[in-house]
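hey so u asked for the seq, here:
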Amino acid sequence: MKRTLCLLLALLLAAVCCACGKGDDGDAADSEQLTYYFTKEYKDDTVDKIQRYNRWCTSHSTEDMKIKLIEFDNFETMSQRLNIEVMAGAGPDLFSNNMDLPFEHLMKTGAFYDLNELIESDTASDKIDLSAYNQTVMDAGLYEGKRYFLPLFYRVYTLVGEKETLQKFHMPTEQGYHLTFDNMDEVFADYLQDPKGYDFMSGDERSGAVNANTVILRLINSQVDFENQSVSFDEGFKEKLELMSRLREHSEISAAEEPAVSDSKEQDPCLFNPLHSFSNPIYMEFMMSLPDDIQIDERAKDPVLYSCFEKDENTYSAGIVDAIFVRSNIKKEKRDKALAFLKYLLGDHVQNLYTGTGEEYSYGGSIDYLPVLNSAYENCIRDAKNIGALFDMYGISIKPKEELSPVTQALIDHIEKIDSVELYFDLYNASYDKNVAVPILQDYWDGKTNIDKCADNLSSATKIYIWE
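ran it, structure tokens below
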């Protein structure tokens, strides 16, 4: 009875919301085109890819394959609409992990289509061959044997510091040091006793979602097994959270919480600068190869790469920056259109284009992504080794290099060890973290709760989130 009442309420609210929204033509499911929700208020990389795909459709005279972008006035309205409609089995045809939805919970309830069915039923010559992609990353979309989403691009979690600075605090200086939540107390022992005017980490908004706050969210997420619905915020977790919070106190707080720092303010140097924590070898080698006469703010001089606070010594993780889901009850006539869009995104052109190795390459316009397509990843390594050609495009000459910089090679070695892939890279905008973890953490940081209450609140709220 309770479930029936909830469904009726969801249907009623969905009907009310259908009258809202900018540029909405009614129920998205009634459109002949595939549909996707967005708002200009919130950066969603999937929108750019859809717009590019629609232009491709026009140039190939397949107008009926275009995807309809339904715009909302603001992110809050869109999120409310999405959550209500999904509860009622409605909503757009396509979803991405950029949306504010409890994907971990929705996968368990079967809200999304098993994409294995689309792939395996395809008889075309350009059928998606999953063996051509990074298996570890692609398998992140598997849940209880069904493939609920396809990753498109991903990033690795790394930190980069200066060797001289790390030596001041007797921290490891070998390339690729495996920093974990278990060994961090030893690594930062000297630093926490006397920071000597050094910040732990910058919260610069250009840092690609690596800062003190998101590192702490990684700690919280490491205690939750969403698929098996288990939670463990024990004494060991509380000790780690206290230590991480002490490190956070020595940081420039995230731009999401503090106003932008004035250019005139003199900032303390940092142990780690997230602006140097690249995922794409091309970016890393570009930074390492800049001629001495080119001045770049905060340029790395003698960089050392660490893994970024892994769960344990056996874990090397990455986060997905773009993943596509398809609504479970999508109309049969739309399934081929969804498959065509997925083929486009996973194709050679897009995989190379967005990682800087395509024909339309531009260092300023490409994104620090890693492609899931194996051949595109090999192109990233190829172009990193041939970085001089990139400088030639800008009329800059550099001496030929016989091998990659040590930090770039360490990055590649790190990428090839990846054995754990998370649905999100930017945890600060993930549904669980934004709506559950962050408010509870903020109360702890503001002194409204102690460590015990914080852990209890996280445990109870997380159980509600994954079991509701």
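Residues 1-27, 254-265 have pLDDT under 50 and may be disordered. Residues 99 and 393 are 37 Å apart (CA to CA).
lmk if thats what u needed
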